[in-house]
Amino acid sequence: MPTLRDIMTPNPVTVDPQATLQEVATLMLEQDIGAVLVMENDRPTGIITDRDIVVRAVAYGHDSGTPVTDYTTGDVFTLDANTSVEDAADEMGRQQVRRIPVTENGKVVGIVSLGDLAVRANSDADEEALKGVSVPSENHNS
C-alpha cells in the first residue's frame, strides 16, 4: 500500500513570514508551482497558493509588496510521511484541503496535492478526496 512518502514532492518551496506577495509569486513562476509554505522556526505557519494571491490580493488591488502572511491560510494541517495514500485522501476530504505538507519526525519533508493522488497513486483515493474537497466550506485551503 503506497504511503505519502511514495507520492510526495520532496523539499517543498518555503518562505519566511516576511516574504512579500511579489517574492512568492516570483518563486511560483520560477519553480512552476502553485503553492508555497510559510515557515517559522521549521514549523509551517501558513500556506499560500497562486489562487490565494489572485483572489485575496490582486482582485482587490492590494500592493505586491504586502507581506504574504496577510493572505495565507493558517492552521496548516499536516500528515506523517508514513500515512497511507487512502488515509490521506480521506483526511484531505474531511479537512477540505487540496494540499498537505508531509512531515517526518516533526519536520516538513514534502508536500502532497490532490493532483499527486490522481497522477501518482494507483487507487481510487483521489476520487474520495475530491468528493470531500468539492463540498462547499468556510475553510478554504486551495
Description:
- With 142 residues, the protein is of the alpha/beta class.
- It has one domain (4-133): CBS-domain (Roll).
- Helices cover 35% and strands 23% of the residues.
- It has six helices and seven strands.
- The chain has helices at residues 4-7, 21-31, 50-57, 85-95, 114-120, 125-133, and strands spanning 9-10, 14-15, 35-40, 43-49, 79-80, 99-104, 107-113.
- The chain is globular.
- The chain starts with a helix and ends in a 9-residue tail after the last helix.
- The mean pLDDT is 87.
Number of strands: 7
The fourth-level CATH homologous superfamily is CBS-domain
Strand content: 15-25%
CATH topology: CBS-domain
Highest CATH level, the class = Alpha Beta
Mean pLDDT: 87
Q: In one word, what is the shape?
A: globular
> Which percent range fits the helix content?
25-40%
Radius of gyration: 15 Å
| Number of separate helices | 6
Cα separation of the termini: 27 Å
Low-confidence stretches: none
Number of domains: 1
H and E order: HEEHEEHEHEEHH
Given helix and strand content, the structural type is alpha/beta
Largest sheet: 4 strands, mixed
Domain CBS: 8-64, 71-127
InterPro entries: CBS_dom (IPR000644), CBS_dom_sf (IPR046342), Diverse_CBS-Domain (IPR051257)
Organism: Deinococcus aerius
Protein name: Signal-transduction protein
